[in-house]
Amino acid sequence: MKKSVALMIGLRYTRAKKDNHFISFISLVSMLGIALGIIVLVTVMSVMNGFESELRERILGMVPHIVIGDRGDGFKDWQSLEAQVKKNPEVTAAAPFIDAQAMFRYRGRTKYGLIQGILPVKEKEVSIVDDYMIAGSLGSLKAGEFGIILGIGMASSLGMSLDDKVTILLADGATVSPAGISPRYKRFRVVGLFEVKSELDGMFAMIHIKDAAVLMRKGDKVTNLRVTTKNVLNAAFTAYEIRNEISDEFYVSDWNYTHGTLFRAVKMEKKMMFILLIFIIFVAAFNIVSTLVMVVTDKQSDIAILRTLGASPATIMRIFIVQGSLNGIIGTIIGVIGGVALASNLQQVVAFIENLLGVQVLPGDVYFIGFLPSVLEWSDVIYISIAALLMSTLATLYPAWKASKTNPAEALRYE
To answer: Taking the model in full, what pTM does it have?
Structure first.
């Protein structure tokens, strides 16, 4: 009964009277501040989720999720190893490759990079590169024709285009002669260009696995088996399982060794951004304190009358906690609805602003994507809502406690 009375009176106090419009205005400001903070936080978190998703798709779509390599000079029967690895339920595909570090030379220009010999038919199953070809395709690589596919960044650095011939120099396995050590080299014709808009565009090239075997003198051996998993974020555990299933002559590594630092940095940045932006809601919640302090001062006589009628200090506290928390609840509801709506339609909103102002928010030639990605995760919305409600409720405690300590005799002395 006491709780229902506290709820009824608390809701009653939220409605404005003729003589306290200023208090109502401050209450409205606090409510809108919480809503705006939630909208900003939900939108920013969604954008960061979008960037993380794009990075994961573009980078981890190019680099192997898991690599199985030979501890020696390579291995021949990669088909048997592929069949064994595919028994793991998390493995979706596997493909052999031969990789090496190389120098690329064209008309006096030289650039360092990575070269990878691939089997085009199998590579389509484990890589996204064929989806980001801007000229040619993986099928353009033919055994014995010594064709090469370059990233657009490397091609631009060397000043190359389709059908140009680039010289590949390998320091590994250099020829030793009386004249000294000379690197192994071979000329390749550019048959394709790709652009995934990551650092791989400027340092990565692909040739046919048969041509790579000739260039690197591997015969019918390959150096690695590339494995793609269902859940890329769980690749480390899958790699551990594979390591226990195959022979000790092979080593197993996953993408965390090569690109884990980048994604850990992204996650850390997301956490720090959440902490910083939550202060927007924190500041808005402080307005609830000022609102309730003014309400308590304005309602001194009401509090005294309630106390003389038998209301306990706890009941008085609940009255003002209800009034202050209602601002937080309404602000949170408005903020969640607005944040979800904005995050879900962010690309359309940004496109409208770009057309209206004639500007481009994310120029495609500067950033790795030419649009503002947004991935709404409901877990973020839940955490933000809980944080906003918690801060709004905590902000009511001190003013409500002060109200419960009101002395009825002192409050009614001059009434």
So the answer is: 0.69
